[in-house]
Amino acid sequence: MLNSFLSTFVIIIYLTISTSCAQDVVSNIDIESISNSRALELDKAFSALLNKHKINTAGVAVIKNGRVVWQNQFGQQSPGVPASAHTLFNVGSITKTVTTETILKLVADGKLSLDEPMSSFWLDPDLKDDPNHQKLTARMALSHTSGFMNWRFYAEDYKLKFINEPGTTFGYSGEGFQYLMKYAENKLGLSFEELVKTYVFQPVGMNEVSISVRNKNFNNIAKPLDSDGKFYGYYCRPEGYCKKEGDYSAAGDMVVSVQDYAKFMISSMHSDTLNAQLIKDKNIIHGIEVKHEDIDCSEAPEAQCPTQLGYGLGWNIAQLKQDKVIGHRGSDWSVVSLAYYYQRSRDGLIIFFNAPNKAGIAGMVDALELLDPDSPEIHGYKLRRARG
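Predicted structure:
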């Protein structure tokens, strides 16, 4: 009788543990794996997607448990030249993730501080008469609480100014990242391009990437064309402005292959060179972009609805009930790019579109519905698509 009771007890415990483990496994599957047949379906679907939305070039990767399980490129790198694994995409503001990891590694190495006033090493001439510059830190720039508007050229006088007290209010700002870049360069006496190469590109093994304008890369860059097929030049805008050879930015215009960015994002998931406090700070929301009561999930009721949206240190964070989606978006007249991963499962997506902005946004909705139909990122893209 006792043996029978013990056997039954063991079976119950085994089934309980097995069920619990199975639930854990299921909860950690955020993006469908890619079988050979699924890959063929996706190849056809993405080819159709490009034709439907008139997207010039696309590069896509699916990551499962921190490993790339599918990657492909679609469309043309330039007229008559098909896209390949070596095609370089301008990823816009996703550049900020590389800047972030560079700064955090320099902090981990004891060369920079997140909390010292950056004015000790850099003071923009536009701010010399504003005492708020003494409060501005790297942590604030990374979390988009610098107090700056996005770009100074949005101001009537084209001058940089504080529109909020540093550290008090969220305000997405490329100027904050540029300020951070100047602080790092002046304190360390090295160009930011050199710092990025030393602390990120070389350790991660990224060879198909550049944060600077280099004529030698032009033949490999997905050629930006407007909706009429017009080409304005590489690193050029329709209004006529073009960046020059050697120009670089901490906030945008990095060009990178999909496979190299996948290496980088997987490396960032692991954060092996950062200490526990830096990892914690990186992955919690410091700058609240959208509060829970203001999040609109009505356009995609079937998708996961975040409880909060904001930024940790440099990375965008969508807080879910029991998880976080960590990543970044890029957007410009010819760029719509997205990269993210689920913190628990380390499942992720990379989607780079070289396309007129409106077409890229519509295409991003279709791409997410193909690859991660309950993605919390769908809400924002559907709202942007609806606004036209």
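Summary: DSSP finds ten helices and twelve strands in the chain.
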